[in-house]
Amino acid sequence: MAATNFLTNNSLAVKAWAKKLYVQAIYDSYASRFMGSSSTSLIQVRDEVRKGPGDKVTVGLRMQLNGTGIAGDDTLEGNEEALVTYSDSVLVDQLRHAVRSKGKMSEQRVAFDVMAEHQSALSDWFADRIDEAFFNQIAGNTAKTDARYTGSNSTVAPSTNNIIRVGTSATTTDGSLSTVDTFTTTTLDRAVAKAKTLNDSGQPIIRPIRHKGQDKYVAFLHPYQVYSLRTTATANTVTWWEINRAALSGGREEAADNIYRGSLGEYNGIILHESARVPLCSDTTSAIANTRRAIFCGAQAAIMATGRESDSPDSKMSLKTEEFDYGNQVGISAGLIWGMKKSVFNSNDFGVITMHSYAAAP
After folding, report:
1. 78 is a domain residue
2. Are residues 126 and 183 in the same domain?
3. Residue 2, in any domain of the structure
4. Do residues 183 and 275 share a domain?
5. Whole-angstrom Cα distance, residue 285 to residue 294?
6. For tag attachment on the chain, is the N or C end more exposed, with fewer CB atoms within 10 Å?
7. Is the dihedral of CA 257, 262, 265, 269 positive or negative?
C-alpha cells in the first residue's frame, strides 16, 4: 500500500512548522497581550519591511497646531502655520538559535517526541527574548547593551520630563531613594496627572490605550513594589483592599481580555501588572540596589517590526532542519528578523513614564 510520508526536511512541513513556531512564540510571550496593529495599542506592530526590502521602519509624528488663528476680516494670508513633524526609526535584524539531537539511540531512551520538544524549546526561547527586549526598551534600561536582548535596537534612557521619583524633595535622585520612598497609589496618581499635562512642557500628552471603547493606561510594577502597594496603610492613602474590593466582588469579568489577562487590578484608569523583569534604577555608572523603575504606559509606548523570511514571503520566521552524522542526528534552527524599540520623538519618550521608588526585598 502506498502512503504519503512527509519527511523531517520536507519543504512543506518546514514552512508549516515555521508558521506555527512564530505564532506560538508570540502567544507564549508576556508582551503579546499588549500588541496590536492600531496606533492605540501599547505595542504597535508594523509590517512595512515584510512587504519589501529594508532594515528600518520609520514612524512619523505630527504635532498639534498651536497657532492663535485669525478673527473677523483680519488677513489670514501670511499668517499660516507650518506643520511640525518628528520621526523615530526601528531597526530590524536577524536573531537565530538552534537545537540538535544527540542521536537516534538517545531519542530511543525517552518516551517523548524529541523533534516536538525541540520546537517547543525554540518557541519558549523566542518568547523569553521578546519579553526581555520589551522591558529593557520601555524601562530605558541602558545597562543592557547587547542588541540580542534589546530587540535589535539600543535602549534609550528615560527622558527628563518622563520620570517620577517617589519622595518629597525636588532634588530626589535614584541614589537618594530611602525606606520612606516606597511605591504607593500616590505614585500612580502622579503618573496619570503627568501623562495628561506633558503638553505644558511642549511634549505631546501620553494617549491612553483604547480598549472596548474606554481609555486605559497600563503600569508594570516589580513584585517588591507590589508588596509595598499591598501593605501600605498610611493615613490618607488608598489601600490595596479598597482598590480591589469592587473587582473582587464582581469577579473581574474582564480578566480574560488581553490587557487585563494576569493583571493585579485597576486603579484610576490604570491596569496594573506585575513583572520581575522591571529593572533596578541606575545612575551613570551602575545599578542601585533596593530600587526599582516601574513603567507607566500609554498608546504606542513601543513599536515592534518584523521582516520576512527570504524563502517564503508569507512567513515571519525561518526554520531549517539539518541531518548530521549520516542522518543519525537532526538539528533545527529558527530565525526571526525583527526589532523592538521604545517610541522616542524629538528626544522625548512618547508613551512612557518611569516611576522610581525604593523597593527592597520584604
Report:
1. no
2. no
3. no
4. yes
5. 20
6. N
7. negative
Q: Which DSSP string do the residues of 136-204 spell out, in sequence order?
A: HHHTT-TT---GGGTTTS---PPPGGGEEESSS-TT--GGG--TT-B--HHHHHHHHHHHHHGGGGTSP
Entry pTM: 0.84
d(CA 106, CA 347) in angstroms, rounded, equals 55
Give the cell for residue 239.
Answer: 489601600
- For the chain, the helix, strand and coil percentages under 3-state DSSP, each to the nearest 5: 30, 30, 45
Beta strands in 56-111 (DSSP E): 56-62, 85-91, 93-100
Q: Rounded distance, CA 104 to CA 92, Å?
A: 37
Q: Which residue has the cell 515584510?
A: 50
CA atoms within 13 A on the CB side of 202: 6
pLDDT of residue 328: 79
251, HSE (Cβ side, Cα atoms, 13 Å): 1
Question: Both 340 and 200 in a single domain?
Answer: no
pLDDT per 10-residue tile (average), the chain, 362 residues: 42 58 81 89 82 71 73 82 78 87 60 65 90 96 93 94 82 85 91 93 89 91 93 62 51 59 88 94 83 96 80 64 77 86 92 96 92
Question: Are residues 270 and 192 in contact, defined by beta-carbon separation less than 8 angstroms?
Answer: yes
Cα–Cα distance for residue pair 351/242, rounded to 1 Å = 28
Burial (CB < 10 A; 0-12, 13-18, 19+), residue 125, is middle
- Cα 124–chain centre separation: 17
Answer whether residue 243 is part of any domain: yes
Domain with 326 in it: what CATH number? 3.30.2400.10
Same domain, 47 and 129: yes
Ordered DSSP codes for 205-274? P-PPEEETTEEEEEEEE-HHHHHHHHH---TTS--HHHHHHHHHHHT-TTTTSTTTTT--EEETTEEEEE
User: Per-residue b/e over 316-344, b at no fewer than 16 CB within 10 Å?
Assistant: bbbbebeeeeeeebbebebbbbbbbbbbb
Same domain, 46 and 102: yes
What confidence score (pLDDT) does residue 103 get? 64
